[in-house]
């Protein structure tokens, strides 16, 4: 079903698919002249700032059944792509098992933005603030595409973000559950620096996750960074300096230097790349200092 009249007051036609398959078929047919929309917070910002053209058609995903819940089982948490950021923040399952993600959504925008914006929209932007938290959890993305349901590691998708691919509809984000057998609870941290206090876009975002095993050594260590226009990515060299060490063996200077070298930052009118790299390095080093019991 379509509502609205294309060209009326310059507004796009709004298409309301009955299911995800119909949404995908419309996108495949209309191509670049149509855009998926749910909360629409990012799209509206892009249009208002002239960063993206307004499409001729919007494919409204809000009414699609089955993509607005958070389901937790022993081996995973599945977050529907249409779950709002506010609902992610209020989820007891995420607070318990993915506190870095809970913190990430807590500091995105104003409450009005979180009430409308969805986690799926933040993910498909390719640079959303939730990305570092997803990467440290080895998240997987569930899509509907030309072969039906498709599962893909989030890290693989974001690495090639921006390259041409077939139309897909993001349906869910999955966080595999990690067993705490053979070690203590996981340490998680999420840090964000903005241009100013309040609801400003991020300059740098980082997330960390690891745990101490029975011998007191850090294992399953993950560090990821993003923010601004930076491509979110795991920082493998910095992870290697953390993994397998006791807290006493951590070399914070080496970790700082590794993050500063590995984090891929870009300059813009608000902050240059050097400032962003130093900020990311400082955030990671400070979080690990805290995790080691020295903060």
UniProtKB/TrEMBL annotation:
Matches recorded under SMART domains: CO_deh_flav_C
Keywords from the named record: FAD, Flavoprotein, Oxidoreductase
Residue stretches making up the FAD-binding PCMH-type domain: 7-180
InterPro entries the UniProt entry points to: CO_DH_flav_C, CO_DH_flav_C_dom_sf, Diverse_Substr_Oxidored, FAD-bd_PCMH, FAD-bd_PCMH-like_sf, FAD-bd_PCMH_sub2, Mopterin_DH_FAD-bd
Keyword Iron: no
GO molecular function: FAD binding; oxidoreductase activity
Cross-referenced PANTHER family: XANTHINE DEHYDROGENASE SUBUNIT C-RELATED
Protein name (record): Molybdopterin dehydrogenase
């Amino acid at each position: 079903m379509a509502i609205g009249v294309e060209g009326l007051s310059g507004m796009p036609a709004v298409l309301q698919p009955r299911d995800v398959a119909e949404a995908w078929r419309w996108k495949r047919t209309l191509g670049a002249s149509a855009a998926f929309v749910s909360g629409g917070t990012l799209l509206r910002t892009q249009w208002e700032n002239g960063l993206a053209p307004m499409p001729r058609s919007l494919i409204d995903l809000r009414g699609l059944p089955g993509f607005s819940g958070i389901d937790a089982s022993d081996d995973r948490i599945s977050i529907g792509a249409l779950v709002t950021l506010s609902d992610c923040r209020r989820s007891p399952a995420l607070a318990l098992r993915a506190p870095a993600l809970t913190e990430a959504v807590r500091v995105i925008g104003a409450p009005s933005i979180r009430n409308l914006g969805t986690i799926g929209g933040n993910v498909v932007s390719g640079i959303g603030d939730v990305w570092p938290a997803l990467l440290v959890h080895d998240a997987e993305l569930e899509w509907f595409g030309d072969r039906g349901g498709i599962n893909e590691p989030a890290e693989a998708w974001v690495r090639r973000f921006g390259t041409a691919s077939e139309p897909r509809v993001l349906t869910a984000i999955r966080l595999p559950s990690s067993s705490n057998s053979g070690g203590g609870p996981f340490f998680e941290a999420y840090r964000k620096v903005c241009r100013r206090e309040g609801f400003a876009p991020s300059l740098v975002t980082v997330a960390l996750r690891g745990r101490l095993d029975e011998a007191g050594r850090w294992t399953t260590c993950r560090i990821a960074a993003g923010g601004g226009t930076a491509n979110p990515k795991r920082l493998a060299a910095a992870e290697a300096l953390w993994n397998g060490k006791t807290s006493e063996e951590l070399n914070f200077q080496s970790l700082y230097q590794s993050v500063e070298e590995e984090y891929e930052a870009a300059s813009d009118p608000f902050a240059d790349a050097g400032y962003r790299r130093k900020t990311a390095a400082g955030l990671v080093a400070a979080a690990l200092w805290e995790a080691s019991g020295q903060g």
